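Quick one:
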Amino acid sequence: MQLRFNKITNGLFKLIHWPLCRAYARHIMGDNPADSVMRFLCGFQYLRVYGRWPDFMNPQSFSEKLWSRMLHERDPLLTLISDKFRVRDYVASRIGADHLIPLLWHGEKPEEIPFDELPEQFVIKTNHGCGYNIIVTDKENIDRMQIINQLEKWLSENFCQDKYIGIGWGYKNIAPHILVELFIGEKDKPPIDFKFYCFSGQVEIATLHFDRYENHSAKAFHRDFSPFIFRPDFKQHSGEIKKPHNFEKMVSLTEALAVDFDFMRIDLYKQGDNIYFGEMTPYPAGVSGFRGFDIYKLDNVLGEKWGQRENLIA
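Output:
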């Protein structure tokens, strides 16, 4: 009965509440920080995820501060680092271009992708949102027209204004672009995804993600690589995980990228001795939230580590 009720509630939110929030953000807010009406509307989604009413004006927990950033912070730097194409220059200037995944092609028109010239394995993505990825591990078996049609659909979307509740402002003003990168996994498996959570330029926790596209599992570690449970709702990786020999190097690179931010999640990949940049994410989990935080009081602990900039809220 509870499961059925939750499905009904989720459906109603996606059908009525989310479009209402998006419409208000698009037509009333524009590029301005959220007003009291938008905060009130978003409060219901936060309540649905976390089970309590938020204080977006005086945020204390990590989740409240994350939502407050989405609602109020309008720093152009958030647009730059959220742009998966432009961020490459940003990363190269801080940690070096050798940590960028090799770029095979980029452009604005899907039909111009030079499929015949590409290697057998590659990744196609767009730069202006999340989840806009196509993993190609066997070029001979792809449907090129299907890929082109999918890319055209993605390019027509504004990830901020068309997805969820319309408050991922960092994505709003990104000009859509296509990137084709070298596939850096082993055989047809993607590499382990290291996601570092940085507060005031320092790594506090890292989550390692395995086999993300088929049998996704994860494991969380403190800065000293001692394990803990980050998201109880997530499938926990059961295999043994040894601390990578170049883990400290990964932390050092991450902190060099995080130095300009009060909070940022930075993703890296490791392929042998090589360390590659994945992405910088100002809104991890976004409106879906980190369920289970309160069980381990992690929401409040991380909230204390996040010292938001003064005058964030206009």
